[in-house]
């Protein structure tokens, strides 16, 4: 029976990526190996996040343990796990992490052809109240293995090979694109495997939700202010849109991908480049949005056309349903 087959023939993330890569003989399994190391990092963090509340309760977090060493904060721990997993994969070359001021250049003996930019634990201010947090990553290929420089990661987002995030929420979900659509996998804790649960995610063409930190409204520019005003008081007879804002980018983007709508982190009077970081927040999420049929815009250009000049650069960002992003683009065009 088809139903039985479904239950005993699960599509794990490894199997899925191997299938995808078989169409691309050049990658010869290297990408699958890299991804399996990223997946390991995600499982480690998922398990640590699940225990975070418990650790606090029994007095582990933020205090010195029996060995007299201070317990590492979850974001520092996550960073170490990912750096070690990525280096030991033997497939990476340059690593950029939100937690580290400088890029990590992998020892030549362990070098491979991929560069990974990541935020090991985004939204970490939400940990203590149990709200969803996540890991975000984007993957590039180096140009020349014998001559590796920062330029290998200071590339426009459209050059990325793959991007994804893992959300540590009521369930643990990994969303991935290798450039041919977007797929979502849910961690089955009893198997320790990510199983394909959301094949070929497409974002609704138009949404009913907007997502922005309205506390910053006083400092917004005109297009952002006009857009949000239209969401609340539409003039075309359509119903007002709902506001949803978690303050955890992975969770806000995950909802946007599945339900449609738009997520905004605009520039404001105090922060001309907004808050979110280009290499490991804006680019991976923009890549996924486009792959799911949505759009991503900086207020000036397509987000994936942006060329970063420093590894921790920031950019304003508007991303989500195709039609919703068209609206904000029109407002910026009017102003120009
Ligand atoms: P963080 O790197 O300090 O965790 O900040 C990133 C987070 C994103 O997850 C989220 O979209 C944004 O900051 C929310 O910012 P704000 O609190 O200004 O609304
Ligand atoms: Mg972050």
Automatic annotation (TrEMBL):
The keyword Acyltransferase does not apply. GO terms for molecular function: fructose 1,6-bisphosphate 1-phosphatase activity; metal ion binding. Keywords: Carbohydrate metabolism, Cytoplasm, Hydrolase, Magnesium, Metal-binding. Residues 203-332 form the Fructose-1-6-bisphosphatase class 1 C-terminal domain. GO terms for biological process: fructose 1,6-bisphosphate metabolic process; fructose 6-phosphate metabolic process; fructose metabolic process; gluconeogenesis; sucrose biosynthetic process. Residues 11-199 form the Fructose-1-6-bisphosphatase class I N-terminal domain. It is found in: Cytoplasm. SUPFAM superfamilies: Carbohydrate phosphatase (SSF56655). Its EC number is 3.1.3.11. One of its GO terms (cellular component) is cytosol. This is Fructose-1,6-bisphosphatase, cytosolic. Belongs to the FBPase class 1 family. It catalyses: beta-D-fructose 1,6-bisphosphate + H2O = beta-D-fructose 6-phosphate + phosphate. NCBIfam families: PRK09293.1-1, PRK09293.1-3. Pfam families: FBPase, FBPase_C. InterPro entries: FBPase_C_dom (IPR044015), FBPase_class-1 (IPR000146), FBPase_N (IPR033391), FBPtase (IPR028343), Fructose_bisphosphatase_AS (IPR020548). It is an enzyme of class 3 (hydrolase). Its cofactor is Mg(2+). It comes from Digitaria exilis.
């Amino acid at each position: 029976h088809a139903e039985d087959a479904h239950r005993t023939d699960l599509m794990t993330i490894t199997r899925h990526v191997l299938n995808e890569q078989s169409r691309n003989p050049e990658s010869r399994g290297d990408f699958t190996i890299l991804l399996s190391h990223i997946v390991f990092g995600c499982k480690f963090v998922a398990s640590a996040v699940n225990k975070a509340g418990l650790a606090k309760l029994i007095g582990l977090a933020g205090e010195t343990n029996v060995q007299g060493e201070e317990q590492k904060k979850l974001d520092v721990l996550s960073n170490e796990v990912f750096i070690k997993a990525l280096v030991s994969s033997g497939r990476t070359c340059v690593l950029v992490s939100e937690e580290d001021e400088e890029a990590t250049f992998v020892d030549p003996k362990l070098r491979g052809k991929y560069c990974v930019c990541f935020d090991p634990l985004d939204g970490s201010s939400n940990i203590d109240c149990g709200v969803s947090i996540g890991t975000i990553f984007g993957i590039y290929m180096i140009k020349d293995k014998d001559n590796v420089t920062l330029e290998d990661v200071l590339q426009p987002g459209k050059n990325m090979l793959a991007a994804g995030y893992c959300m540590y929420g009521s369930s643990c979900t990994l969303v991935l694109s290798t450039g041919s659509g977007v797929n979502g996998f849910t961690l089955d804790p009893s198997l320790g495997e990510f199983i394909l649960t959301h094949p070929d995610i497409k974002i609704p063409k138009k949404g009913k939700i907007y997502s922005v930190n309205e506390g910053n409204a006083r400092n917004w520019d005109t297009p952002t202010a006009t857009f949000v005003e239209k969401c609340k008081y539409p003039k075309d007879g359509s119903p007002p849109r709902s506001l949803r804002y978690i303050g955890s980018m992975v969770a806000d983007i995950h909802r946007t991908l599945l339900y449609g709508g738009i997520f905004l982190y605009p520039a404001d009077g105090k922060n001309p480049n907004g808050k979110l970081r280009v290499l490991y927040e804006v680019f991976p999420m923009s890549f996924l949005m486009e792959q799911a049929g949505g759009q991503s815009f900086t207020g000036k250009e397509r987000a994936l056309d942006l060329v970063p000049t420093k590894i921790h650069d920031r950019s304003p960002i508007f991303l989500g349903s195709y039609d919703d992003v068209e609206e904000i683009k029109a407002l910026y065009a009017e102003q120009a």
